[in-house]
């Protein structure tokens, strides 16, 4: 499989691609629209085809705890961080603004979302695609090398670091931000994330909780309002995360957000 130059948004690639880990700018395969998992990908495209344009503006009011989770993401010059369900790349852009962000990757089922993500990355970070990117540390005098944010279209349960991102090493951190509760095949998504995480690495998850510490009337109204956006708490996902600790696969910790409105789960892989 060949390694193509970085593709600007809207450029049609001839087929599945393996991104260069040193290309400048967002690299996206979001135009590969006829690959496996088309049913779920098509459903995500229908859901976000219009709402992606106002997604960040509207979700800021009820996707609580995202920035608190990002504080747990450790980045350095040589780290590799993946967001599964990266959407508009809001979280990846925040990480990229760190002095040492390392290498950042995003995976999403929706082609529509990835197109918005690529545009947001270029607008927010000023990174433009370049076919002749310098190796890290090889920029000329006065040139600042920027690691890329590499975007790929695919399903969470099919995550494969080498096949999708051209990586021979597993990730240091993988995180899901209000994503697992929307994935029909979430058990496979958790297993794939753990398989592509290095020993000692961290899987971070922020998602809706049971809201038991909120006043009952308020919690009931809140759940009805959230249902309008097709989101809700899935206790089976929470239970599966607990089981990761019980099975010895990882060290699990939970943190409550806004009186159990949401939780942040941290799993360190054994």
Total number of helices: 9
CATH architecture: 3-Layer(aba) Sandwich
How many distinct folded domains?
1
Described by strand count, sense and barrel closure, the largest sheet is:
7 strands, mixed
- CATH superfamily membership, which one? Vaccinia Virus protein VP39
Mean pLDDT comes to: 78
The secondary-structure element order is HHHEHEHEHEHEHHEE
Could you say which structural class the secondary elements and strand pairing correspond to? alpha/beta
Strand content: 15-25%
Gyration radius (Cα, Å) is 18 Å
* Order of the strands making up the biggest sheet: 3-2-1-4-5-7-6
What fold name stands as the CATH topology? Rossmann fold
CATH class: Alpha Beta
- Please give the share of residues in helix: 25-40%
Low-confidence stretches: 1-37, 128-145
Counting DSSP E segments of at least 2 residues, the number of strands comes to 7
| First-to-last CA distance | 33 Å
Shape: globular
How does this model look, in words?
This protein is 30% helix and 19% strand. The protein is an alpha/beta fold. It has one domain: Rossmann fold (3-Layer(aba) Sandwich). The protein has a seven-stranded mixed β-sheet, sandwiched between helices. A hairpin with a 4-residue loop joins strand 6 and strand 7.
